[in-house]
Amino acid sequence: MIAPLLMAVALLPSGTYRYETSIGGHSVGNSTIRIARSGGTLDVGESGSLIGRTLISDRKIREATFANLSYVADANGKHFVLTFAGNDATLTAGGQRTTIAAPAGAPFLVSDNMTAGFALMPATLAATGVKQLTLACLCGSFVAVPVTVTAHPTSPPQGVAPGDAGLSVEVEGQTATFWFNPQTEVLDRFELPAQDLTIVLRSYDSAVTPLSKPAAPTPMPLPAARYTSHDVSMKTDDGVTLAGTLTVPNSAATPLPGFVLVHGSGCNDRDETIGPNKIFAQLANRLSNDGYAVLRYDKRSCGKSGGKFPVRERLIADARDAIAYLRSQPGVDPKRIYVLGHSEGGELAPSIAIADGRLRGIVLLAPPALPLEQILKQQLLRNVSSADRAAMEKQVQAELDAIASGKKPSTTNRWLQSSFGVDPAALIARVPCPILILQGTKDIQVLPADTPRLVRAAQSAHRDVTVVMLQDDDHLFIKLPADEPSTGGEYFTPSYLDPALFGAIETWLGSH
After folding, report:
1. CA angle 254, 258, 259 (to 5 degrees)
2. Backbone angles phi, psi at 437, to 5 degrees
3. What is the Cα–Cα distance from 342 to 272, expressed in whole angstroms?
């Protein structure tokens, strides 16, 4: 940690700040923030790369009051403009306009899940004197998120200057802590324990240097392709067009067996891109090189697919439309179609198989063994200390109950609500085709300790089920060193999937 800026007297001195973001000790991004002043306006520019996402932004803030004047950003080829009028913030992007409102006494702070929004928070609170802010959050959708000051801790962690001040806030049931220079309000360290995430100031230079374009980590190159890739479009039963990629082996006897890949949760593209890692692109490459036609597609409303973000039943219907599309392709054997689902896709695949009735088999990668609301509770409480656990558990349960009852309507919450109460164990007992379950022993999102519940349910119903536990694999099936736990931070380092994953799938396919 660098020494605090003892010589500076202005709030957020002009200059160039460089921050590093890490998850569980793994570096997942870097950000350069440039602060300059002109005519009573604070100009805050940022150039950053975080978990595979790049962004260049510029914020104009009235120095005297810290009121937002404007925000513009370019992120992964998209341009965003945010303007403010009173308590309203209006986002313009891609020809569309959306407005959200902040409650009185909770001024806006722009958050794009990069660093500058967090770095501005201590100064904004100090300048405005309020105890609550409203994040104008560009986080998947444009929403107003309340931030409330809850405490002022006084014992800085190791590496933070002894004279730093502390500030804890609550954001959607999670507690975040800021450590900053009390004279300048410059952020030295940000901690979000629930996600094992930290942001640390690595350097400061009083010179205001131009921002350079950030460089995102690139995915690992795929092995040589012995197949042809085609971009395809599929019409769903409600008229929405899904965009995808079909890979077809070059030299294999027809009719070909085929796979449809079903994504995990969130707005996933056809490659199931997580940071620099393209999980489904690697799987499709291997399966098509093995002689399988593979169809993968952008989830509805994501990538090049149309429609609105789907609830659970719509996800199942879209997967069934993708299966029907693959079955209709020349040279594909309609009787030898498999579905491979990862994470949420592993929860959906049994329902897809039950509804379809004709699948040759399903492959479940890191499938949930508990209802979604129980898994969310596990995830949200994972890094909570024993001293805080009871209070946090009560808070998390209240949040989940509000979502389940429909009291907190949003695109994400409607999707969550549609999956609450669904028991994967009850569904897997009804699957009419062979099942392969693959689970990493270091998965922190779907716990391997819960997998036997799923296996027992299938076995008790006399299903054809095979389970393979992959030693030291995380949720993405990246193999970790024996002495290294998964934190989620490793997702954002370019990696190949564990070769044992492919071997287990190929062995199972050889007998099914």
Report:
1. 165
2. -110, 125
3. 9
Q: How far is CA 209 from CA 12, 35, 264, in A?
A: 16, 9, 41
pTM of this structure: 0.82
Strand intervals (E) in 63-113:
68-75, 78-85, 88-93, 96-101, 108-111
- Beta-carbon count within 10 A of 205 CB: 11
Domain boundaries, the chain: 15-205, 227-370+423-511, 372-422
- Print burial letters for 475-507: b (CB count within 10 Å at least 16), e (below 16): bbbbbbeeeeebbbbbbbeebbbbebbbebbee
Phi, psi dihedrals of residue 367, rounded to the nearest 5°: -80, 140
227-370+423-511 topology per CATH: Rossmann fold (3.40.50)
CA distance 17 to 3: 13
- Identity of residue 11: L
- 8 Å CB contact between 205 and 16: yes
Q: Using one digit for the tens of pLDDT, what is the confidence trace for 27-81? A: 888 999 999 999 999 999 999 988 878 889 999 999 989 999 999 998 877 889 9
